[in-house]
């Protein structure tokens, strides 16, 4: 049996499995089985976790992320925050405490902003996390029908292609965002595939997004996707920081002062359940 904890951040759900519990298993195969929504537990990905220590000798964590299709991702902002919530429960963290998590995209440091308790145990948290320095460049992608889509190629620890749209249908070149997202995700211009976000500016301090996630498909939310979307809107001077990024699963707050500076993402994470999978 495989012990797990399930958590979500704005509906973007993850399973947390310790490396000890997964020892001797094929992690890609295990992730596919666990994430299957009809025959498994169901999730967008699995965060395989190990306890470590930081430079000061305090407890910290290390994670390896597998998407629901078994592929490896460098990082998930929401997945990392879900792990932070689980660590906060294990450490009995309080507001103001700092949690450090090593990812394949580097160290992420989160500050606990608030804690919700249930039966004396941490159940939910709000976390402000440093997401690193975004890398941005303009890019045009030619689709299979010959049309060109203008956007921005952005790295926030993992790859993104961000497209600004003009209406709330999120359509691009006469096609649905889902269709465009799927094609661009698997486009030859992105040999390792890419996450794709569609951004609608709602006001000077708010954007709304849709997400086609590499290795998953459409998702209700994405931490790195919210970060990339915000960076694209700010660098094009379409909106000001701090800003609210609204996805179907909920809102997150992004603070970014511009090119060359670290971006900060704030949002919730909720622990849903603990259990054992018969795999």
Structural features, described:
With 279 residues, the chain is an alpha+beta fold. It folds into two domains: 140 residues, Diaminopimelate Epimerase, Chain A, domain 1; 128 residues, Diaminopimelate Epimerase, Chain A, domain 1. It is 16% helix and 47% strand. The protein has four helices and 17 strands. Strands 1-2-3-4-6-7-8-17 form an eight-stranded mixed β-barrel. The longest helix has 15 residues. It is globular. 44% of the residues are buried.
- CATH fourth-tier homologous superfamily of the largest domain: Diaminopimelate Epimerase, Chain A, domain 1
Radius of gyration, whole Å: 18 Å
Shape: globular
Name the CATH class of the largest domain: Alpha Beta
Taking the sheet with the most strands, its summary is: 8 strands, mixed, barrel
CATH topology of the largest domain: Diaminopimelate Epimerase, Chain A, domain 1
Assign the CATH architecture of the largest domain: Roll
Helix and strand string, N-terminal first?
A: EEHEEEHEEEEEEHEEEHEEE
Provide the residue-averaged pLDDT: 97
Strand content: over 45%
Helix share bin: 10-25%
Class by alpha and beta content: alpha+beta
User: How many β-strand runs?
Assistant: 17
Number of helices: 4
């Amino acid at each position: 049996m495989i012990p797990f904890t399930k958590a979500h951040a704005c509906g973007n759900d993850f399973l947390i499995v310790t490396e000890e519990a997964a020892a001797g298993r094929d992690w890609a195969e295990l992730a596919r089985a666990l994430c299957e929504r009809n025959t498994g537990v169901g999730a967008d990905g699995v965060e395989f976790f190990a306890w470590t220590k930081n430079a000061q000798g305090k407890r910290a964590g290390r994670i390896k992320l597998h998407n629901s299709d078994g592929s490896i991702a460098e990082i998930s902002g929401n997945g990392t925050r879900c792990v932070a919530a689980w660590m906060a429960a294990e450490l009995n963290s309080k507001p103001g405490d700092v949690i450090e998590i090593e990812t394949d995209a580097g160290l992420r440091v989160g500050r606990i902003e608030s804690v919700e308790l249930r039966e004396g145990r941490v159940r939910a948290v709000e976390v402000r996390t440093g997401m690193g320095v975004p890398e941005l460049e303009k890019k045009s992608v030619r689709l299979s029908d010959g049309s060109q889509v203008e956007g921005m190629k952005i790295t926030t620890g993992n790859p993104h292609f961000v497209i600004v749209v003009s209406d709330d249908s999120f359509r691009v070149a006469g096609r649905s965002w889902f269709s465009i997202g799927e094609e661009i995700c698997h486009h030859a211009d992105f040999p390792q595939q890419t996450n794709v976000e569609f951004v609608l500016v709602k006001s000077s301090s708010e954007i709304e997004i849709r997400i086609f996630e590499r290795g998953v498909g459409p998702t209700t939310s994405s931490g790195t996707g919210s970060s990339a979307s915000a960076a694209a809107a700010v660098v094009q001077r379409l909106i000001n920081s701090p800003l609210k990024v609204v996805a179907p699963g909920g809102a997150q707050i992004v603070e970014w002062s511009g090119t060359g500076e670290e971006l900060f993402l704030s949002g919730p994470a909720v622990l849903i359940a603990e259990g054992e999978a018969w795999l």
